[in-house]
Amino acid sequence: MDIRSTDRRIREKAQARALSALLVGFVLACQAPLSAQTAVHPVGGPRGASFEVEVVEANLKGAFDAVFCCDDLKATVRVEEVEDSPARVFLNVEVDPQAKLGVHVLQLLSDEGLSKRLTLQVNAEPHIAEQDGPHLTPSQAQLIEYPAVVNGRLSEDGEVDFYAIEVAAGRKAIRRLKSSNTTIGCRT
Questions:
Q1: H or E, element range at 4
Q2: Cys bridge to 88: 79, 80, 152, 162, which one at CB 3.0-4.6 A?
């Protein structure tokens, strides 16, 4: 699906929801301003899974729906608003077992309009969470069964996390890093 058809699909869904909202009030269907500090965690999940995604953004107060580029993903929205803090939006995402692998575009619909485009990645590999305990040194590295997608989070500047991956002799491990809001590097 190309970006124009994705944009059209998102606009059509937003317009249909806005039209139904006109019966009970006025909804402004425009792009809501988002700051540069948008963070999405985790950045995706596997086919056939249900998982919670957190979106942290200062300008998402009043978000009430998630509009995806296709019917492969669906989500319900829950918002936690704390005065003088960015809104915390939680999406309970369901991925169809036959969902297309790769990046899926979504936008949040709020009282302010549509958010900027956000993405979720659908993978074939199992997803695992970053361990709660420390893994700040090579001796504390979190053991990962390959292949897998690790949903980790760097919570402070300068944080370093270590992972140990065991790969059978003669096989190569592929490392790809994706972040929702920063450029990150990888050393092996």
A1: helix 3-21
A2: 80
Instruction: Enumerate domains of the chain plus CATH numbers.
Output: 3-123 (2.60.40.10), 125-188 (no CATH)
How many other C-beta atoms are found inside a 10 Å radius of the C-beta of residue 98?
8
End-to-end CA distance of the chain: 35
Q: Quick one: residue 25, left, alpha or beta (phi over 0 = left, psi -120 to 50 = alpha)?
A: left
Reported as a single tens digit per residue, the pLDDT across 134-188 is: 788 888 888 888 888 888 877 777 778 888 888 888 887 777 766 665 444 444 4
| Spatial distance between the Cα atoms of 39 and 121, rounded to a whole number of angstroms | 14
Q: State the pTM of this model.
A: 0.69
pLDDT tens column, 165-175: 888 888 877 77
Q: pLDDT (tens digit, 9 = 90+) per residue, 46-93?
A: 999 999 999 877 567 788 899 999 999 999 999 887 777 767 889 999
C-alpha 154/C-alpha 136 separation (Å) is 11
- List, in order, residues 6 or more apart from 180 with CB less than 8 Å away: 38, 39, 40, 41, 43, 118, 119
Q: Which of 121, 43, 58, 52 is nearest to 88 (CA)?
A: 58
